[in-house]
Amino acid sequence: MPIPADWPANEAEALAEQERLRPLVQPYGPGPGAGTEADDTLIAGVDVAYDDERDLVVAAAVVLDRDTLAVVDESTAVGRIAFPYVPGLLAFRELPAVLDALAALRRTPGTVVCDGYGLAHPRRLGLASHLGVLTGLRTLGVAKTPFVFDHHEPGAARGAWTPLTDPATGEEVGRAVRTRAGVKPVFVSVGHRIGLSEAVATTLALAPHYRLPETTRRADSLCRRALTGRQRGTSVN
Prior knowledge:
This protein is an alpha+beta fold. Helix content is about 25%, strand content about 25%.
């Protein structure tokens, strides 16, 4: 898929775009079925894998039934890496392919879980928030590391959490959440059209057995298989 013609081409343009979009983020939940054609019984995960030698990124979107966590739809998209690697601007590398993968789904999920950050971002516009503003979908970010933010270790029990805070302002930008007893936490933040407590509850519901939510696990597996298949010249199916 081609990179959109109006996509930022350099760091200054990307920073300006983040500043433009940041006020559009809604860090609260409007409730199910609020003005979209999305199906609130479905929840998707998105993830990407890179082939740096060929300058390619593969994105995957996997849709699960919210109650059973069974896969009901999936898609992949391949495109050129859309932006150089700059910390805090990773969304500009990944979003064109992610948007193509979401557009290829047969069913529109009510919520999308990103492997990364939402408001837990220096300019409060990580991948999850950026994706939510562009699509209008409810989004949240579940990251493996706290990026540049502070937290205390939550209690050892599943479901324990502590605030993830900006050291410069003390603002709570997310939560460190224990999804498995005794296993290191994940870092949950609001993306768009969801509150933080709901984002945490959603993450826990999606992680009944493993540290990472099933949405992320399934999307990661699919995009890696798609990348391997492309490198070998075969299909992922």
